[in-house]
Amino acid sequence: MTSLNYIDLRSNKLYGHIPSCFRGSVYYIDFSSNRLSGHIPASLMNGYGGNDTFLSLANNRLTGRIPRSFDNINFYNINLSGNRLEGDASVLLGKAKFSTQIDVSRNRLSFDLSNVTYPEFLMELIISRNRIRGSINEQITELQWLGVLDMSYNRLCGPIPSGLRSYPSSTFEHNKCLCGTPLPPCT
Description:
The structure is a single chain. The chain is mainly β. It has one domain (6-179): Ribonuclease Inhibitor (Leucine-rich repeat, LRR (right-handed beta-alpha superhelix), Alpha-Beta Horseshoe). The chain is 0% helix and 27% strand. The chain has no helices and 15 strands. The protein has strands at residues 6-8, 15-16, 28-30, 35-38, 53-56, 61-65, 75-79, 84-87, 101-103, 108-109, 124-126, 133-134, 148-150, 155-159, 177-179. The strands form 3 sheets. The chain has a 7-stranded parallel β-sheet with strand order 1-3-5-7-9-11-13, with no helix packed on it. Strands 2-4-6-8-10 form a 5-stranded parallel β-sheet, with no helix packed on it. It is globular and about 60 Å long. Pfam families: LRR_1. InterPro entries: Leu-rich_rpt, LRR_dom_sf, PGIP. This is Polygalacturonase inhibitor-like. It is found in: Cell envelope.
């Protein structure tokens, strides 16, 4: 299947591991809402160099870490929410990325958010219900298109950047020690 480029098998009852044979021209994979388990193959989507890469593995039973090889992929949209993934998700972030939507919520991810930079055209960032620590980098306030933001239920600390004060308190609730509008003032 060398010319295969679009795979949509969402909302089935698929189980087992994700095969590592999808690479080259595949730019769209949606395996969300199944019963897939095991690790995300490091070779998944390797070889495709476009900026329109779409990957949704949401609501499965995946474990392990987000592959370091994802650092070399420009995901337009990536959704890994609702799994049991651990470790560092910062490979999905970075100023040079072209991502518009990133959702890694409801996992067991644990990394320091303090020095992370964000894709310039990011419109949606959902990292809630993880174990992410550190502070919120001021660079996030430079994102002109950011509309959806959820950093709740993590271990973040420090003042909320003033450019994020228009978001509701639910965006930042249940963190270790975030403070400032829209949460209680810093002491």
